[in-house]
Amino acid sequence: MSQPLSPHDSVAASRQELADIIQRHCPSEGVYETAVDSLLVARSDSPSEGRMPTLYRPALCVIAQGSKDVRLGSELYRYDELNLLVVSVTLPVSGQVTEASPDKPYLALRLDIDPGELTRLIAEAGLVGSTPRPAARGLYLQRLDTCVLDALLRLMRLLDSPRDIAMLAPLYIREILYRLLRGPQGHLLHDLAMTDSQTHRVTRAIEWLNRNFDKALRIEDLAREVNLSPSTLHHRFKEVTALSPLQYQKQLRLQEARRLMLSEGLEVAVAGHRVGYESPSQFSREYSRLFGAPPLRDLASLRSALGAQALPA
Fold first, then answer.
1. Among 24-33, 51-60, 118-127, whose mean pLDDT is lowest?
2. Is residue 178 domain-resident?
3. How many domains does the chain have?
4. In a domain, 293, yes or no
5. What is the pTM of this model?
6. What CATH number corresponds to the domain at position 176?
7. Residues in domain HTH araC/xylS-type (predicted)?
8. Contact 55, 94 (CB under 8 A)
9. Fewer Cβ in 10 A, N or C end of the chain?
């Protein structure tokens, strides 16, 4: 007669099943969309050679196998199969897979978070009256608990049962968001959705910068746009993103210029001008500082690495 699984064995078995599902839907290295609109899966068969700057949007990121370092400004976040990563606002970060091999690849998923769905869920669950807290980083690590893992596993199983996705995926996603909201750092997601919070106003400033990163930035104008004083905006913005608004804008510009050169074949000077740089030499200097090499050398390195791309989790 078989013995019942202990809680530890049960979690390990769930994580292994999660890894098996991801691997089935990632036939080779790369990032793959799934039949669930907000869900992506990723695989890497070897550690990253260096840090890959990318833009994280609000999402839940979970590693089923392997480990990864994520850097936000000067801060380093190390996470693996035991932790989940929650991004509550759009952030320019850099990531590096640190543990992966062909026999045991890095396997991860990313579930995008819809702030509108958060708002509806908060109202329906009666969580509107949460006590206001000071602004905090828009990215945090949390221990992967069994409730979130179970809901994620049920969502991932739908990839092998596509006819059930339309009916069941929204239910499972709502459960996952509810678990995060009720978690130890759920107030960060709560503040993202609440229109009267300072974090929500910082989020509006972030959204404005993402739409207008190629324009000249005056902190006074941005503060007026989101109904905060310039000093409060600067302080709260840095609390949430670890960057000043100008530093944030610079990273957006450089990442978009890199995309334009890599994906659309724009020349260096044209790409720099397109994202708002008037001085080609300043563009090259700041590009080298962020990506570790001048534009042409960096692009040659990226193109020589087959399938090089930023992993989403």
1. 118-127
2. yes
3. 1
4. no
5. 0.86
6. 2.60.120
7. 203-301
8. no
9. N
